[in-house]
Specification:
Structural class: alpha+beta
Strand order of the largest sheet: 2-1-3-4-7
Number of domains: 1
Number of strands: 7
Largest sheet: 5 strands, antiparallel
Distance between the termini: 117 Å
Helix content: 40-55%
Oligomer: single chain
Number of helices: 2
Length: 161
């Protein structure tokens, strides 16, 4: 009987050391959970940035296509050789267009659309080029310099009849 008691006493000691968690195990668990949370937050942030870039690009394509469609309504012989710039700012569910004569509104998240119409030397082919720059950001804190890191260009050639 003495042997049984000794065995029970030894088993209690072994089991007592295995119960509960140590500080190291708790720290490892917290580090793993923290890593998972940070990874999820980074993925969400990256997804939002990608969505904004895609939205801006889609809007730039839409603005270029709108200008092209506007110019396609005219017969090519009526197109004057010219270059003009306008600025577009989206507000709510619509947008405001500022002519170059009004000046650059200098607002972040604006689009700059340049339309250039040229004709070849023999006046037989008109080339229409619409360039929309987007993603406007200020280069300095004073807001005096604005740059557009991205642009989309549509070009069309039409014979003059």
């Amino acid at each position: 009987m003495k042997d049984k008691n000794k065995t029970k006493h030894r088993n209690k000691k072994k089991n007592g050391m295995n119960k509960g968690t140590s500080i190291i195990e708790a720290l490892i668990s917290v580090a793993i959970i923290g890593f998972v949370v940070i990874s999820i937050l980074a993925a969400i942030s990256q997804q939002q940035a990608t969505t904004k870039q895609t939205t801006d690009k889609n809007m730039a394509v839409l603005l270029a296509e709108l200008r092209m469609e506007e110019l396609f309504k005219f017969p090519s012989r009526q197109l004057a050789i010219e270059e003009y710039i306008d600025y577009i700012i989206f507000k709510g569910h619509g947008f405001e267009v500022y002519d170059e004569s009004l000046g650059d509104p200098r607002v972040e998240k604006q689009f700059r659309r340049t339309t250039k119409i040229t004709k070849d030397l023999l006046q037989q082919v008109a080339t229409i080029r619409v360039e929309v720059e987007y993603g406007a950001v200020f280069m300095d804190s004073a807001g005096s310099q604005l740059r557009y890191p991205s642009k989309i260009v549509l070009t069309s050639r039409r014979t003059i009849k």
